[in-house]
Specification:
Strand order of the largest sheet: 2-1-4-3
Distance between the termini: 33 Å
Helix content: 40-55%
Order of helices and strands: HHEEHHHEEH
Strand content: 15-25%
Largest sheet: 4 strands, antiparallel
Length: 153
């Protein structure tokens, strides 16, 4: 396991919720939108709990294809219960390409940064938060910055 993978797993360990309601999804989504607006970033945010859509917002300047990126990155988190950035890095660390070696349909799964599991302490994964519209590193950073900011309110 490389250093980036260790860092990504540490994020998952540290960014866990005591509880998570639909109102929390709304407020988390708005927190991420606020951060994106402050940085003049054109992104979309999508949050699901138990695979039910709870929050979706596309900032001005986004485009339809972002919805496809969101679905594909979210599906990776649903499948592996880790951030999409971690899953992509895990395949790269093995010298593999996710699209070629995961045996999953690339039109449905994309191991690019930006989707993160909603983890309840002592329970595990109950949903996903996905950011899309920037580079995979920036999508991931905005996602975890939003979660971190929300948790520290």
């Amino acid at each position: 396991m490389n250093d980036l993978m260790k860092e990504l797993l540490l994020e998952e360990e540290n960014l866990q919720f005591d509880f998570f309601s639909n109102n929390d999804a709304l407020n988390l989504g708005l927190t991420i939108i606020k951060l994106a607006n402050e940085a003049n970033q054109e992104i979309a945010v999508y949050i699901e709990v138990n695979r039910q859509p709870i929050f979706a917002y596309f900032l001005k300047g986004t485009y339809l294809e972002i919805a496809y990126w969101i679905k594909r990155k979210k599906n990776v988190v649903d499948r592996y219960a880790h951030s999409s950035m971690f899953v992509g890095e895990k395949f790269r660390n093995r010298g593999c390409d996710f699209n070629e070696n995961s045996l999953l349909d690339p039109s449905e799964f994309q191991a690019a940064g930006g989707a993160f599991p909603i983890l309840l302490k002592g329970v595990g994964m109950i949903g996903t938060v996905t950011v899309s519209g920037l580079s995979e590193e920036e999508d991931h950073k905005l996602c975890i910055d939003g979660i971190r900011s929300f948790l520290h309110k």
